Amino acid sequence: MSVRLSSIQHIIGTRHAKRFPAHLNLREEYLPYKALIAQVLLDKNPTIRTVINKTDEVGDQNAYRTFSYELLAGQHDLNVEVHEQNCAFRFDYSKVYWNSRLETEHRRIVEKFESGEAVCDAMAGVGPFAVPAGRKGCFVWANDLNPNSFGSLGDAVERNKVSRFVKPFNEDGRIFIRDSAMKLLETDTQVDITPKESRAQRQNRSLRRVPRTIVTSPKTFNHFVLNLPCIRNHLSSRIHWSLCRPL
Ligand SMILES: C[S@@+](CC[C@H](N)C(=O)[O-])C[C@H]1O[C@@H](n2cnc3c(N)ncnc32)[C@H](O)[C@@H]1O
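Above: query sequence and S-adenosylmethionine SMILES. Below: predicted holo structure tokens.
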């Protein structure tokens, strides 16, 4: 029996993902053979540990945009590590939103941000906009309502060493978006980005010292990221535009 590869979603074992489950979206005619197909995939691909079948469309069932699935073969463990824009993210794929096909869009948006700008990411998920933006030296307020996304976002912030630039929040985006611009206005954030001195500089004080460099967060957001199409228009009306920086 041959199965068209187009009915199999997500590439497994790419250099961007560790332990990513093979994620099938089988057509009706293949469903009677789903266990067999899954076992063949498992046997023939040493990088695959788990094969699942989606049983609904992302977002059909819940606000967190997670999906229902059934385990077809292998270990029931959906903890994964993925890499995007030189940042690592660890999460349970069954409990948070993640779509590897958005990588180009994540990169395209982050490239628009300049170092030192302030970014409000109201539905940040596990942080594919927020964490790379923090790496660039943007001051990011990153929020997600899903406690699991918030947990993985916090992990990514620490893992990628951007805690001085990225603040995670776990609130309803509708409230977050209303309040964040006002709160930023009242918050002072400064980060010392002076490069570490070399050992020679530390040992010999007569060598020229590295000048101290402090960056200060703007008091107004330069960018808002609202990546939840169903309520995006509703949310943008809640932003205090008067407290935002005109571009
Ligand atoms: C389409 S996903 C985008 C996540 C992330 N920006 C990305 O590109 O992977 C939408 C996110 O919005 C979160 N979400 C849903 N309703 C929300 C709300 N009312 N407030 C804040 N976040 C919400 C979900 O948990 C999910 O992580």
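The first helix runs from residue 34 to 44.
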